[in-house]
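Hi R.,

As promised on Friday, here is the backbone we talked about, encoded as structure tokens. Could you run it through your design pipeline when you get a chance and send me back a sequence?
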């Protein structure tokens, strides 16, 4: 093996190791001033990248820094400290849920609400449960009902307990269900494609598989049906998958195959017994 070949293989191995083990900051903030949680004698504090203690361990629990603040707990109350260790927001919350572009999700008493980076209440806490923000929206629950709220805490979409809305955006739209039917939301909570489908996947390459009358077809981001429903599970359970590389896998009868964006079958399997 030549020296050049050996060096090339060593370089490739080094790159693979770096990708496999990202020794980056766990502090949630990048840069030379990143701080890292440590525990000493059952108390938590922070060190810098050299191992120097920056914030002496004195808290019962901490989370990583984000946007210049870190949640800390003493006893049963949570607050936020700045990078010097000073309390930027007093210990007042029963639970906290991180920081999302200047917005704090926290529980006071039995209800969750939104607070700014000074700890100021933005609205009266009224949610029984709240999930992390996805863009400008968050899923909340109030008793057996709930909905999707914006950053002001206003409900932009009401949901029932059995409705599905994980706010997982794909190509700018998020799948949700209402009354057993599926549709799609925009990042501001507006219903772009009304709930009308029996099932649906996530968008990929501008199209998404939807189910109507027991068969699958594809719509675009306006809701227009570009490939009429005609595909089903085959005998082996092969179902419809989203587009990747210009083709989508579909099942039909006792066969499966690949279609292009026009719905033309470009390949299909032999018939199964």
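Update: got your reply. Pasting your designed sequence below so it's all in one thread:
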């Amino acid at each position: 093996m030549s020296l050049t070949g050996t060096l090339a293989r060593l370089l490739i191995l080094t790159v693979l190791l770096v990708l496999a083990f990202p020794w980056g900051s766990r502090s949630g903030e990048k840069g030379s001033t990143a701080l890292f949680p440590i525990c000493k004698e059952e108390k938590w504090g922070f060190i810098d990248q050299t191992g120097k203690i920056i914030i002496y361990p004195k808290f019962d629990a901490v989370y990583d820094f984000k946007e210049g603040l870190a949640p800390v707990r003493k006893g049963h109350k949570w607050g936020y400290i700045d990078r010097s260790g000073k309390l930027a927001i007093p210990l007042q919350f029963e639970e906290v849920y991180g920081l999302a572009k200047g917005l704090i999700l926290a529980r006071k008493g039995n209800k969750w609400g939104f607070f700014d980076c000074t700890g100021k209440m933005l609205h009266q806490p009224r949610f029984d449960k709240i999930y992390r923000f996805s863009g400008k929206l968050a899923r909340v629950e109030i008793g057996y009902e709930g909905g999707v709220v914006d950053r002001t805490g206003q409900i932009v979409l009401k949901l029932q307990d059995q409705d599905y809305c994980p706010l997982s955006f794909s190509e700018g739209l998020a799948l949700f269900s209402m009354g057993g039917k599926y549709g799609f939301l925009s990042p501001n909570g507006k219903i772009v494609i009304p709930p009308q489908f029996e099932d649906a996947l996530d968008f990929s390459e501008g199209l998404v598989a939807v189910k109507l009358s027991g068969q699958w077809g594809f719509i675009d981001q306006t809701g227009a049906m570009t490939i009429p429903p005609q595909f089903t599970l085959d005998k082996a359970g092969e179902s419809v998958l989203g587009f990747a590389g210009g083709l989508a896998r579909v099942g039909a009868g006792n066969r499966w195959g690949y279609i292009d964006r026009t719905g033309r079958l470009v390949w299909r399997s032999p018939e199964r017994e």
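One thing I noticed while checking it: DSSP finds one helix and 25 strands in the chain.

Thanks again,
M.
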